[in-house]
Description:
Blueprint: E1 2-6, E2 13-18, H1 25-31, E3 37-43, H2 47-60, E4 64-70, H3 79-91, E5 99-104, H4 106-118, E6 124-129, H5 132-138, E7 143-148, E8 151-158, E9 163-167, H6 176-193, H7 195-209, H8 213-233, H9 248-257, H10 265-283, H11 288-300, H12 311-323, E10 333-339, E11 342-348, H13 351-357
Parallel strand pairs: 2-9, 3-4, 3-5, 5-6, 6-9
Antiparallel strand pairs: 1-2, 7-8, 10-11
The structure holds nicotinamide-adenine-dinucleotide (NAD) and zinc ion (ZN).
Amino acid sequence: MGIVNVPLGNRSYDIKIGTGLLVRLGAECARLGLGSRCAIISDTNVAPRFGRAAQRALAKAGFVPKLVTIPAGEQAKRLKTVEACYNQLAAQRIERKSFIVALGGGVVGDLAGFVAATYLRGLAFVQVPTTLLAQVDSSVGGKVGLNLKAGKNLVGAFYQPRLVLCDLDTLASLPMREYRAGLAEVIKYGIIYDVMLFQRLERDLPKLLRRDPPALASVVAQCCAIKAEVVRQDETESGLRAILNFGHTIGHALEAISHYGKYLHGEAIAVGQVAAARLSAQLLGLPTREADRIQDIFQRAGLPTQVMLNAPQRQKLLAAMQLDKKVSGGEVKFVLARRIGAVEFGHRVPLAMTEQTLNP
Ligand SMILES: NC(=O)c1ccc[n+]([C@@H]2O[C@H](COP(=O)([O-])OP(=O)(O)OC[C@H]3O[C@@H](n4cnc5c(N)ncnc54)[C@H](O)[C@@H]3O)[C@@H](O)[C@H]2O)c1
Ligand SMILES: [Zn+2]
C-alpha cells in the first residue's frame, strides 16, 4: 500500500493507495477514533457494486453504517439532493460524533463532502473514491460543493477529509470512457509539475490503458503527491493552486456550451490542454516539439485533442470563458507552460489568439 500525506497542520490526513483496501475501511476508520454511527453516501451505480462490502467492513470494526444512495450523474450534484441526504441523516439519528463516508466518483465526493461540512455544522468525513478522476483529483484537497442552475460548483466550501482510501480494485468496473477521462487529469500532473512523470506516462501508457495494478498504483500515488504538495502550499487557491486548472479555462467553456452533455470533463480538458499548449508555444516559448508531445499523449490515450466549431460556436465558447468563475476583474487568465513540467498561472491571452488556436 502506498501512503501520501497531505500536511495541513491539525487537518493533515493520509491518502492510502492500493488493492484490497475496501475490506480495511472499518479498521482504518477505527484508527481515526471516529464515533460509532456513520452514513455511507453513494450513488445508484456504485452502491450496488461496493455498498455492501463497505457496510460489512465498517460493521466488522464495530461501526453502525447506514447506506444513503443518490442518483448517479452530475445532475444529482444539487441542493435538492443535499436536502434529501440531510433528511436521511436526521432519520438515522446521525449525531455530532458520527461520520460520513463518500463512496463513489467526484459527484458523490463533492456532494457528500458538502453534506459533511454542513450537517450539524460539520461531521468528519472519509473519501473512498471509485473513479480514476476522483482518486487522483477530486477526493484530495478539500474542495466540496454543488452546482446551481447558474453554473457548476458555485456553492461549496473547503473542508478536508480525515482519510482518503483509494482502492484500485474498484476501478475494474469503471467504463472505459470514464477511465480515459481520468487519464486526462493524470497527464495534466506531468505537464504542470513533473517532466519525469510525463515521460513515464509516455512510456507506460499501454500498461495504464490495461489498468495494470502496479503501474496504476505508482501513478495514482505520484499524482496524489503532486496535488498534496500544491494544496499544502496554497490550500484555498490564492495563487499556486491555480496551476491545477491547466487546460480548464477552455475545457470548462466547452463543457458549458455543450450543456455538460456532450463531453466528459476529462475529454473537455484534454482539448483544453492541447489548446493551452499551442498558446504556450506562441506566448511562452514552449518548444513546438513539446506541444506536439502533449497532443500525442492525449491522442494515444484515446482522448479528443480538438473540436470542430463553426464561427457562432466559437463565439459562444469565448463568451463562456469570460463567465467562468475563475475569472477575476473581468479578465480571463490562463495557465501556460514554459516547458513540460513547468507552468505559470495568471497569463493574459488575447481573445483573438484563443480564437485562432481553436480554428487551426
Ligand atoms: N473537488 C474537486 O477538487 C474536484 C476536482 C475535479 C472534479 N470534481 C468534480 O468531480 C465530478 C466528476 O467526477 P467523476 O468523473 O468521478 O464523475 P462521477 O462521480 O459522475 O462518476 C462517473 C460515472 O461513473 C460511475 N462510477 C463511479 N465509480 C464507478 C465504478 N467503480 N464502477 C462503475 N461505475 C462507476 C458513476 O456512477 C458515474 O455514472 C464533477 O462534478 C466535478 O466537478 C471535483
Ligand atoms: Zn479537472
